[in-house]
Amino acid sequence: MRTVVFDLDGTLIDSAPDIQAAANRMLEGEGLPPLDLLTITSFIGNGLPKLVERVMRASGIDPDRHDELTKVTLEFYNQASSDLTRPYPNMIAALERLSNAGCAMGVCTNKPEAPARDILRALDMERFFRVVIGGDSLGVKKPDPAPLLRAFDALAEPNPLYVGDSEIDAETAERAGVPFALFTEGYRKAAIEELTHAFRFDDFAKLPDFALR
Asked: What range defines the domain where residue 48 resides?
């Protein structure tokens, strides 16, 4: 038996296009030009409030308006959070195989819990996960290890493995003392060699063989 917890954005799903659309709708409302996908993707990883902070800085917006514009951006995202978001190739088949093998699975993300559950439901993925810990589920976010440890505690099964795509995920796993599997096709900024990991993969078809061995 293996207990597997996954990051969400950049790991299970490619959500950058919907996040870009929400951020650019906010900017449009401010009379400002849009930001390209590469720029928005580079801002993903520390939760929506931090992303909005980075968008505001890049666009020259008064930082005192952060709370207001975070709320606006979240509303836009919630309105269309699955329009452009897609699961990564072979990911659903990998989850099916892990589930059929008896793995207990969960999600630990810096996305707020309600939007995380909404997107999992919209993509018919919620059925795989016993627990979803979001960026607002506790008083802290990744890379603090507490959210990840809460997910594993809730699953209450042996042999933990955390699967993610970024520096934040690698640090979270290291601080939690659990093995880390790195999905190399997500939103990572650092070189692969800089991240502590037990396994790396570029195709979800490769993950079950490692997780189930």
From this structure: 16-79
User: pTM to 2 decimals?
Assistant: 0.91
Question: Which domain CATH number covers 171?
Answer: 3.40.50.1000
Q: Identify the active-site residue in 7, 18, 165, 169.
A: 7
SS (H, E, C) the chain: CCEEEECCECCCEECHHHHHHHHHHHHHHCCCCCCCHHHHHHHCCCCHHHHHHHHHHHHCCCHHHHHHHHHHHHHHHHHCCCCCCEECCCHHHHHHHHHHCCCEEEEECCCCHHHHHHHHHHCCCHHHCCEEECCCCCCCCCCCCHHHHHHHHHHCCCCEEEEECCHHHHHHHHHHCCCEEEECCCCCCCCHHHCCCCEEECCHHHHHHHHCC
> 59: domain CATH number?
1.10.150.240
Do residue 7 and residue 43 come from a single domain?
no
How many domains does the structure of the chain reveal?
2
Whether 110 and 55 map to the same domain: the answer is no
pLDDT of residue 159: 96
7 catalytically annotated: yes
Query: Are 73 and 120 part of one and the same domain?
Result: no
Q: Could you report the per-residue pLDDT of 140-192, keeping only the tens digit for each?
A: 999 999 999 999 999 999 999 999 999 999 999 999 999 999 999 999 999 99
